[in-house]
Amino acid sequence: MRTRAAVLHELHAPWSIEEIELDPPKAGEVLVKLAASGMCHSDEHLVTGDLAGATAGMPIIGGHEGAGVVVEVGEGVSWLEPGDHVVFGFIPACGRCGPCSQGHSNLCDVGGTEFAKGMQISDGTARHHTLDGQDLTLMCLLGTFAEHTVVNEASCVKIEKDWPLDKACLLGCGVVTGWGSAVYAADVKPGDFVAVVGCGGIGSNAIQGAKLAGARSITAIDPVEFKREMAMEFGATHTYASVAEALENLGESTWGRGFDKVIMTMGVGDGSVLGEAFWLSAKKSRTVVTNIHPTHEQSISIPGAFLTLFEKEIVGSLFGSANIRTDIPKLMELYTQGQLKLDELVTQTYTLDQINEGYEAMRNGENIRGVIIFD
Fold first, then answer.
1. Do 137 and 30 sit in the same domain of this protein?
2. Cβ atoms within 10 Å, residue 126
3. Would you name the residues annotated as active-site residues?
4. Which of 131, 136, 242, 285 has the lowest CB atom count within 10 Å?
5. Do 114 and 68 share a domain, yes or no?
6. Same domain, 195 and 141
7. pTM, two decimal places
8. Number of domains present in the structure of the chain
9. φ, ψ of residue 153 in degrees (nearest 5)
């Protein structure tokens, strides 16, 4: 069949909206008609090259935050059928490898092995092709910047049909990543002092997670005034434009004690900012690094002695250390109960043809999250 998709052909180029050829699903695969796709900063990393060597080659269909309706299932797919509503997890969970069997599906071996190839998990070949026959790779094995896509069943999470797909799509990456960074990776406890550095789509949800976990105070740090204002709506109690400003006001935000948990959720990780943020944290604190650092950045400046003397921790977190099969439905239920804000995350919606306009707004700090709505 033919469908339309946003394709990136080279670094620093705009997304090209073009018609592509899409093969039917093979064994273990699913054809899905997309309803909506979030516009995450990670797809911008493809454009800038910050993930060079860590993601699939070009040309590539972007997008990894998507939800839609199953159109067709391949051989052996017994738990999904046409008409089912699904959210994609940006890391597939095979359910059989070591990490999956230990409850760490965010570190699935299959997803990790195939992620950089951008081809189908089942046989390593492509289902998406340009009209002249060139194979197209997929961001996170999904390619949700397309009207239709074929993905492995390991990337699908079935959800209730009455849950809004234009909000559910956000759970494929940003919401769960931010929420889990606070609740799981940082292990925020009732009464904790929490700082979130970077308050876009992921940081806003780290704030929500910290609030739900019972944090005593939540400090949002971001240079964009609009994002600081929105952070207060999501649960922040204090806001500052920089780490330096937050350091100057520890007496106000933490009664001079320092933060128990510091969560790094910047659009692009920066070793110098991480080194500066280290000083925000108190004794026995934990700093969680969720934002992606450029692959060419090889070091950060942290005084190692203080890791020992103050028992500080620095940990990484992928997908908020969460599990797609338990946490995506859980957070949708919290949304339906009014405990999790999703509507407020969507600053602007776009058509597929407006994708470059949406990413320009993201670069300008105008969006918490843009969402592409498909017809």
1. yes
2. 19
3. 40, 42, 45, 64, 173
4. 131
5. yes
6. no
7. 0.94
8. 2
9. -60, -25
